[in-house]
Amino acid sequence: MTSPAHVIRTQLPNPPPPIEVLLKTVHAAVEDLKAKDVVEIDVRGKSSVTDFLVIASGTSTRHVKSIADQVIKFAKNLDVMPLGVEGEREAEWVLVDLGDVVVHVMLPRVREFYALERLWTVGDQRPDEPVTEDDRG
């Protein structure tokens, strides 16, 4: 006596959107909630984990969390599910991993302390460019 086989219907996921579309969507999300000092850093060739970092500041922990939530909401509209979200509880620094783009939303004091922009742009300056006060920290 055999039972009939159960058929499980599967569907291949939609292909991810082009990176330009994902970046544009991330920028729209952070701008929608008035994030401060938004910076995009191309880390292709420097990181095997992601292609772009988007770093933004919020004015309070509530603002930081709201901006990160908006990034997630806008990404889901593209059928992009975050690979991970870290730091939501404290909301001083929330990381949203969208694969090709990783978004960091931080309080200004946390952003200044960790200085991700400097960390990921070291060596990008041409040797013939003068060093400014901003570069020295």
Automatic annotation (TrEMBL):
Keywords on record: Cytoplasm, Repressor, Translation regulation
UniProt key word Repressor: yes
Any Gene Ontology CC annotation: cytoplasm
Gene3D superfamilies from the UniProt entry: Beta Polymerase, domain 2
Compartmental location: Cytoplasm
A GO term for molecular function: ribosomal large subunit binding
InterPro entries documented for this protein: Iojap/RsfS/C7orf30, NT_sf
Pfam families: RsfS
Keyword Repressor tagged: yes
Signal peptide: none
Gene Ontology biological process terms from the UniProt entry: cytosolic ribosome assembly; negative regulation of ribosome biogenesis; negative regulation of translation
Alphabetical list of PANTHER family matching this protein: IOJAP SUPERFAMILY ORTHOLOG (PTHR21043), MITOCHONDRIAL ASSEMBLY OF RIBOSOMAL LARGE SUBUNIT PROTEIN 1 (PTHR21043:SF0)
Family from the record: Belongs to the Iojap/RsfS family.
Complexes and interactors: Interacts with ribosomal protein uL14 (rplN).
Function of the protein: Functions as a ribosomal silencing factor. Interacts with ribosomal protein uL14 (rplN), blocking formation of intersubunit bridge B8. Prevents association of the 30S and 50S ribosomal subunits and the formation of functional ribosomes, thus repressing translation.
Protein name, per record: Ribosomal silencing factor RsfS
Species the sequence originates in: Vulcaniibacterium thermophilum
